[in-house]
Design a protein that fits this description.
The chain is mainly α. It contains 7 helices and 2 strands, in the order H-H-H-E-H-H-H-H-E. About 55% of the residues lie in helices and about 0% in strands. Helix 1 packs antiparallel against helix 2 and helix 5 crosses helix 7.
Amino acid sequence: MSTSPDIAFRDAPTEPSDPAGPPSSTTRAMPPPLPDNAAAAPRSERVAADAAFAERMLERLACSDYAGALMAAEALLETHPGHQDLLDTAQIARSELRKLYTARLGLLDRTPRLAMDPDGLATLHALDFRSGLVLSRIDGRATLAEIVESSGLPSCEALRVLSELYLRRAILLPE
């Protein structure tokens, strides 16, 4: 990854438009095309905004805000796929988050168990489908590693959910 916070983003190549023929009675007619210089301003503003966002992403990474840096990198990768600095940032952030979650949970060969009954789990605020998916894998026999692997979520995401469930005392881990 480059050491400079300045990330140059190039405009993605645009495909030539392929008119589908005259509009039918059920489709709207397209407005006339904008002059060539009208599209340049929003595009250059977007490039500048993305560069500023990338700079903030790197600041988050430098401040150990790995979740924020990962979120920013993934957002920028949607419009700039394959950009090496963004890919590197996402990889570093995931690696650091994995370390943090694993340190919090301890050895992944331990078998978690539910700390509360289903009614108690229902009272926990902000449980999303990921939490439900991971909770459904906790059967008293599966290890943390097996739960991560079988969850169907990216491993970093499954570890995050397990870590949050542990911090919220929804699951217990043997000593």
